[in-house]
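seq as requested:
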Amino acid sequence: MRTSARWIQEWDPEDEGFWERTGKKIANRNLVFSIISEHVGFSIWSLWSVMVLFMGKDYHVDPAGKFFLVALPTLVGAFVRIPYTVAVARFGGRNWTVVSAALLLLPALAAAYVMHPGTSYSTFMLVAALTGLGGGNFASSMTNINAFYPSRRKGWALGLNAGGGNIGVPVIQLAALGVITWAGASHPRLVLGIYIPLIVIAATCAALFMDNLAPMKNDTNSLSAIVWEKHTWLLSVLYIGTFGSFIGFSFAFGLVLQNQFGRTPLQAAQLTFVGPLLGSLIRPVGGWLADRWGGARITLWNFLAMAGAAGVVTYASSIKSLPIFLTGFIGLFVFAGLGNGSTYKMIPGIFEAKAQDRIAGGDSAEAATAWSRKMSGAAVGVIGAVGALGGLFINLAFRQSFLTAKTGTAAFASFLAAYALCFALTWAVYLRRPSAVEKTAPAPTLAQT
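struct tokens:
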């Protein structure tokens, strides 16, 4: 089954005998070390959400400039997710995990070099953009793990992989809190001193313990096909609402607390990690609920809850109530994390249903299964890339709101409207009536995927 250089030549997780004999053990091992690498990637991606907390008056960067520094990594991270997705099929999941983890040394070392007063704003922009490389790790990791697991276990596995990665955001925020608490807000390089060794460990572990799947070498052409699938773009909109919210709020939360509620860097750092932590921990639960009750159904009601939480935050912002604001904002993080899991579960479910159409049209079950795996893997990358742009939109909305009104209230109101739109889209496309995808696939239907 395996040849040299950790390449697995045959892989059929849908075969229950194969899965129980050898597949489950191999898949779970790859999942563990994928989570480690993705976790560090998310931490580096969100590096500037904590670096800006160290940038006092002597850095001469105003609040709008800080919001832009936080937004740049989300933009770059969204764009690199496409080539990172292709790289898994081109070079192998294990091989690309090693390379993508090692590449994180570039933004980490660059930040350690430039993080001091007197550095030009354009230099900060360039280094902040480099941290977008960490955003690409998510797409390659999810595409890789998607291929290891059978359809009946994808929701939980993808949720666990993504949740373990997402938790890199609050962890680096906790690291920054520790540095600010014990060394003060003038020692940002200590944060990098923690993470540079972790990057080396993640790359080494991937090299030693992960595998490449040879069947994925045939997946390199699926990206051009997936862009013509309407569900790719419909689900991208939903993922903008869930993951875009999670990553955008994670990057901006500390700045909002400082600029709207007058929190010091230490006071902001004491609060910023709570929401991302809860949102990360609950993501696997969203995948599990989707496995049990249907991704579309969980996603629908989750957007309603997000709209409600956004309403609470908008009200709290208008009356300047920090306790109500924190309650609503933490609710947004929790529901964004839950929706991340349920929305991602919809991806393989939709293409499994479409594979049934291909079987009815004369394709063999093996060919249809391979097509579903390739298409869902490519869709994971594209949808993840577009969804990450939501983080850019959120930070630009905050930047404009604080520039014009010195408050985030207008931005929060716009988020509420966006969640209402996502609720309507989920209901209209996936729950109101059976779609063409479902007509020849009585089980599972899209409402059950």
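The chain has a mean pLDDT of 88.
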